[in-house]
Design brief:
This protein has 142 residues and is mainly beta. The protein is 4% helix and 49% strand. The strands form 2 sheets. A 5-stranded mixed barrel has the order 1-3-4-6-5. A two-stranded antiparallel ribbon has the order 7-8. It is globular.
């Protein structure tokens, strides 16, 4: 048996609010887009920002997470890549590469303005404020 790995990890900003629909079996399917930016020095020596848009699909997303995932918010998405094809309204066959998310962590609280770094990061296990503060003057065992 051959071993393979299909894993993607992204940190970026949501391009739109989450849209949710339900399958015939009452499974929720949520979709949103997110942008990641790669910076590099161009031939002229100036920095160039290159934005890539990703379509993300999430199954059975909680209501809490739907409230957290708003346009412009910074988010961490972990999942796998999938490819699909479909025929659009004009009858043209289209291809799409999507991310099927297995884990999402909002990196900003719902109350902060988008684009600003927020020190209160959330995960499914709690918030950053739950982490005890360490006094740098304490003797550490290492």
């Amino acid at each position: 048996m051959a071993f393979s790995l299909n894993k993607i990890m992204l940190i970026g900003n949501l391009g739109r609010d989450v849209e949710t629909r339900f399958t015939n079996n009452n499974v929720s399917v949520s979709n949103f887009s997110m942008a990641t930016t790669n910076s590099y020095k161009g031939k002229d020596g100036n920095w160039v920002n290159e934005t890539t848009w990703h379509n993300v699909t999430v199954f059975n997303l909680s209501d809490y997470m739907k409230e957290q995932l708003k346009k412009g918010k910074k988010v961490y998405v972990e999942g796998r890549l999938t490819k699909r094809d479909y025929t659009d309204k004009e009858g043209i066959k289209r291809y799409s590469t999507d991310v099927v998310s297995e884990r999402i962590i909002p990196l900003e609280s719902s109350g902060s303005e988008s684009g600003e770094g927020d020190s209160n990061s959330f995960s499914e296990n709690g918030s950053a404020s739950d982490i005890p503060q360490v006094d740098s003057n304490d003797d550490l065992p290492f």
